[in-house]
Design a protein that fits this description.
This protein is 39% helix and 22% strand. By secondary structure, the chain is α+β, with helices and mostly antiparallel strands. A hairpin with a 2-residue loop joins β1 and β2. Bound molecules: zinc ion.
Length: 85
């Protein structure tokens, strides 16, 4: 049974090795193995990348890495005031 997606594994490596730079406004700079790509979040919250892989398949390790990173950030976020009793 193969549950592990190679794309996901690559994304994990990118996220873990700190190769993602947040540029602001939902735009990230991702340093991949073959070049640096721009991953941008559109108003709907969908991530787009400008690498050839994303253009062909609509998904890539760069966008997945940014997704992983933002997910971790959300989880790390400390709940503010107003927690339910
Ligand atoms: Zn990409």
């Amino acid at each position: 049974m193969r549950r592990r997606d190679p794309l996901f594994e690559k994304a994990l490596k990118l996220a873990e090795s700190g190769r993602i730079e947040f540029l602001g406004n939902g735009v990230y700079n991702v340093v991949g193995d073959h070049g640096t790509y721009i991953v941008a979040e559109d108003p709907a919250g969908k991530l787009n990348c400008n690498c050839p892989g994303f253009l062909q398949k609509g998904r890539c390790s760069h966008a997945a890495a940014v997704m992983l990173l933002t997910k971790t950030q959300h989880r790390k976020r400390v709940p503010g005031r107003g927690t339910a009793p």
